[in-house]
What does this fold into?
Amino acid sequence: MSDFLTVSVLLATIASAIRLATPFLLAALGETIGQRSGVLNLGVEGVMLLGAYGAYYATLRTDSVMFGILISLVVGGVMGIAYGVVTLALRAEQGISGIGIFIFGLGLSDLLFQKQVGTPTPIDGLGDVAIPLLGDLPVVGEVLFHQNALVYVAFLLVPVLWFVINRTPFGLNVRAVGETPEAADSLGVSVNRTRYITIIVGNAMAGLAGGALALELGIFQQNLTNGHGFIAIALVYFGAWRPIGVMAGAMVFGLVSATVLQWKTLGIVVGTTASIVGMFPAVLTILVLVLVSRRTGQPSALTRPFQRGH
Amino acid sequence: MARLAGPGVLIGAVLAAALIGAIMLLILGANPLSGYGALFDGAFGSTKNLANSALKAMPLLLVGAGISVAFRTGVINIGGEGQIIAGAILSTLVVLAIPDLPRFLLLPTAFLFGAIGGAIWGGMAGALKSYAGVNEILSTIMLNIIAVQIMNLLLRGPLMDPGEIERGSRIPHTERLSTNADLPILPGGTRLHLGVLVAVAMAVLCYVVLFRTTQGLRLRASGHNPFASLYAGMSVKRNVVLAFVYSGAMCGLAGVTLVFGSEGHRLATDGGATTFTGAAGFNGIVAALFGGLHPIWTIPASFLFGALLVGANALQREVQVPAALIQALNGLVVVFVVGSLQARLRLSRAASEMGREDELSDTDAADGERTSGKAVPP
It folds into this structure.
């Protein structure tokens, strides 16, 4: 334990926490924008798995990480269109269709991996990018500004998403559609068009989150995400549907994951105790949900399909 | 939810999924006809294959029957995986503790403690929903992850087969459990064992509880309209917990059949999240939805999906496409079944009033609240 409490190890842990928070953050921000428009997407986990596989496979075949990232976005976007058709055009129950998407993603990513790759082959993941000037700062520079590109993208999306939701006409539409779709409709806002956009963007971000995870680990395997997507949904509740709160939650989970990893590396946890710390994120999620259960701010129209004249 | 039943749509959903599966087979360079031929043959081709299909269906049926109870009470239980594991662990512990009890006592004891294990694991999600306002979909998924880790911890630690430790191979499984707890093989020369009959009996029991008892009426009422149920003096919170307890107990029994009906007669894992359960906790949901959330109709539905899973292995051998294809198609079936709901609703409205209980849950708002974590009134 004393090995853990040294400055260099703690700084390395924080740097790794930021990196590990990134997939949570990307997926949770995507879920946030969807939920603000009144659509619950429980298929995040499945979409993340497909995005992760897409990014992994594309990178494996072309050696281009950028192409891998692009593929994960496209895969997520396509799943978004599909989820939009199911929940908006067909008005299917969002909870159960999300579970269907999850099972589909779990099966399909495993199928494609077994068929196209077979044996786990590592890929070169994302390299770190040092930000000029800021990266030269003592301590902070090393921790915050020597990260991979997706880390910067994810954390920059926090203010961007806040701005879009709270300060743009489109964001106003999103909030209106999520709170009182009937009123929005009567003012000429197309409820379903707004929701299609948020769902597609949200799912693309879930796909990207999966890609970030696969490229961070440099590997793919069956059920790679192991609950990341569901934790991301819990983070939206934790963050009270606000990007900044979601970021705080993602950092908490990043820190927990990084600490666990660091402990394993240092040999503080070995063998069977690894299973105990493997439960941490799940236990933490339940505790977090208990703590935030009285939280208000849930979009009023969440999970309610819109139908004119109802 | 009762509206989910409807043979036309169900067949349509399977055909649509099969069509997409055929396209996927083509893309993966396999002949869909020989693929599906192998699948059909592997699932139904011989007495042995039929028996294997029934064995695969057994945990799906137990999970599915339990999930029908939960869904009709208005709660979504995706915790089947964790509840199966909890039941398997508790029954294994009990059998390890008292291995010499005579068979006619040990086997029922194993089933009892399996049900208790699953009920505790499910009940936790119910209590979290009722008394702490935690969305059950998220809590059950997290409880699944926790259960898997506990199983790995036990099988790599205190429960590991002493023989494995001696040999140094350290495969994470228990010793061969007491022969007195083996599920007896049914006559007929197949691998079919008592577990299959238990599963069918439990599905019938779920039907009776749900549709022929006051308690079942209360559960369904809570699912249809929690506010009216509260007004009528029912404790909706209590019903939610109860539904999870019933549902979890069924999954726990599935865990018992998977341990004591397995060929190795032991609890085994390879560390993967779904290896022990064979993803029965998820596939049971598919079977339940396909059975219209009706425990009796879940019997043939489970058999169908069990057969598909068995056939998938034959497909893998024959055309070298991984069996995970069927898992992916199962997800599509779920999406298609719920996706077709509204379309059918419009048809049925046009065709006049369909059924009484169907209309009760007809508003979209009530459906929505079911998943939003707000279904339990104060």
